[in-house]
Design a protein that fits this description.
The protein has 306 residues and is of the alpha/beta class. The chain is 35% helix and 16% strand. Strands 1, 4, 5, 6, 7, 8, 9 and 10 form an eight-stranded parallel β-sheet that branches. A two-stranded parallel sheet has the order 2-3. Keywords: Membrane, Signal, Transmembrane, Transmembrane helix.
């Protein structure tokens, strides 16, 4: 009986000690694996260097555009930096990747052909029929805010004097500027934003709603209007800009999302529906043209001719 009692005591003591160890290490592992988000109550402090985005140029127009292609990019990666993680199961580059040399050729083509690269304000004026823009006009956009946008795309855009809209998942922006490692899929840092804000117009791709629900739908169509509004408010705080535009994560949206965007003061929103934007276009359903890793210069030329 005494031996039996000792065994029970030993077992209980072991369970207590083991539980304490597990709790300690779970806390440690949870801390190590948790994702650090940019604080929802802090601003990127980029307002002063984004003032140029409010300007609207006066164009000398021989022939006005009937449609404007809105080109959509995500990641720009140098060929020598490609890793196995950049390829799908069939061995093809993911459709969100464009090689640096191809991007360089595309921007050079736009420059040599005399294309006008519009700002959001100018594009909005075109859609609203307030202004005319040159026949050869495009709007360049990037989704997600990957770090390669600064290290690879930005120097090319800057070289040709081009601007582009960069739709940020604002919670992903980092306060610390870590060394660029293309294989890690890093996001822009505050330093990147400030050094490239003369070329990029920074806009919202949500705060932390670039996710899918367990049932598969994007958060923007599966979460309540209150939750969507809360996420947008956090993104608004980070960006702290008056003229707001939005890109739908995964291109998924519904009437409720549009209602929240309108209520929250967003002037336009961009889809992934293929097409050329035309005057009178629905402000919250702007089509875009995705540029793919398989596109050669001929494909690119065809895509930008409305």
């Amino acid at each position: 009986m005494k031996k039996y009692g000792s065994n029970i005591l030993f077992t209980l003591s072991f369970i207590c000690i083991f539980s304490s160890v597990i709790i300690f290490y779970v806390d440690q592992f949870s801390g190590a694996s948790s994702t650090t988000h940019f604080p929802e109550d802090q601003s990127f402090d980029i307002q002063s260097c984004q003032k140029w985005t409010e300007d609207v140029r006066t164009f000398n127009i021989d022939r006005a555009a009937k449609g404007v292609p809105v080109l959509m990019y995500h990641r720009i990666i140098a060929e020598e930096d490609l890793e196995p993680i950049h390829y799908d199961e069939e061995g093809n580059l993911y459709t969100t990747i464009v090689l640096e040399k191809e991007f360089q050729s595309q921007m050079e083509f736009l420059y040599n052909e005399g294309f006008t690269i519009l700002t959001l304000r100018e594009f909005e004026g075109f859609v609203d029929k307030d202004i005319e823009v040159p026949e050869k006009s495009v709007l360049l956009t990037f989704d997600d805010g990957f770090k390669d946008n600064f290290h690879v795309a930005f120097p090319v855009l800057d070289k040709f004097g081009f601007t582009a809209v960069n739709f940020l998942i604002t919670s992903k922006i980092t306060s610390d500027d870590e060394p660029f490692k293309v294989e890690q899929g890093q996001y822009l840092s505050l330093r990147d934003l400030n050094e490239s804000c003369g070329v990029f117009e920074f806009q919202s791709h949500t705060y932390n709603f670039h996710q899918r629900a367990p049932e598969g739908g994007a958060f923007l169509v599966t979460r309540s209007k209150t939750e969507i509004e809360r996420d947008l408010n956090r993104s608004d705080t980070n960006l702290n800009i008056s003229h707001k535009a939005f890109a739908y994560p995964y291109g998924e949206y519904g009437t409720e999302a549009i209602e929240v965007l309108n209520k929250s003061g967003y002037s336009m929103a961009f889809t992934v529906v293929e097409g050329v934007a035309r005057p009178g276009e629905s402000r919250y359903e702007i089509p875009r043209i995705g540029i793919l890793p398989t596109d050669n210069l001929r494909d690119f030329r065809e895509k930008i001719n409305p």
